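Give me the fold.
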Amino acid sequence: MDALTRQTVPSRAQARLRRWAMVFLCALAIAAIVGALLFVPAEPPPTSKRDPLEGQPIPVLTAVAATSDVPIYQDGLGTVQAFYTVTMKAMVDGPLVAVNFQEGQDVRKGDVLAQIDPRTYQAALDNATAKKAQDQAQLANARLDLARYQKLVANNYTPAQQADTARAQVAQFEALVQQDQAQIDTARTQLSYTTIVSPIDGRTGMRQVDPGNIIHAVDPTGIVVLTQLQPISVVFTLPQQTLPEVAQAMAQGKPEVLALAQDATGGPARLLDTGTLTVLDNQVDPTTGTIKLKAVFPNTRHRLWPGGFVTVRLRTETVRDAVVVPQAAIQRGPRGPYVFVVTAGATAQRRPVSIAYEDRQGTVIASGLRGGETVVTDGASRLSDGTKVSPATAVPDTDPAGEPITAPGTGRPGR
């Protein structure tokens, strides 16, 4: 029992000593922290720097809201089609002895394109002509016999039956002569088919058959395909919602249609040709909800080619004395579109507007802006209502070719 008591007393003393050591270390750490906070000098607050541009006018580019007549266009995608397409096929059988055109050659109506060996058909025509001459001779003799019998019957020298038989013989030979003439017409027509002529003014394509081949009327491929390129057609579609505007435009005449080249780079589209709308289809396609239209273009410079795709812009109306600003002047916000108007005191005034129509050429303002007012076209992101500005006039984009700068698919009614 005494040995156990002697072992317990030192253990308790050691535990007390460890606790006091830990307390002392904690107090020492707290004192170090407090001393650091009290005696380490605080970093001086940064000196505020004043923006040297503060209070200076903000440079912006401006443009004047113009008043002009603005055409309203409906945009669509169209396919170029030849005004006429003719596949030249043989209508009779025989050897092809001559081809009188070059591939890609422009031909006129009536030009001889190819020649089939005509000898067999010429012989058939000669045979029919000879047969007619033979029957005509017999007809002439029958008519003389009829005249004799009629005189004899009048004098009671022969029975009337002889005259009736002669009259029937004349009618029979007359029918034979008419049949011979029909045979001649058929043979002459077959002979004419051996000379293949162009039925239209157009351009030849690739030659499908070479001279020396035997061709037949039942051959699936023709000799050549002709296409008329002047004028030329473009078939395109528009949403059925545009039907009232299109119908009204057609009621007032033939609306103007622009054909534009599709630019894969997204740059300005090039005007290919200007034509007129000629056909509005008589029904709406129920599967796509679109209407089909056809426009005709003169295509004097051969810029339109059958099978190609073009962007089509149909002019449906013209807004008179409209207020127009560049598209860059329109800003969008939670409350709708707005512009910054430069006042007489060179300050920016935020002005909400409503848009009637917009495309690459400009934006038509329905309300909120008057013609002649100056609007900001560049630098509006740095402005607020009442900001001082230093305006400079923007230089408008021009097309070096002198043609309208128009982008496909940009014309749309404003919301």
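The helical segments are 2-39, 119-154, 160-192, 243-251.
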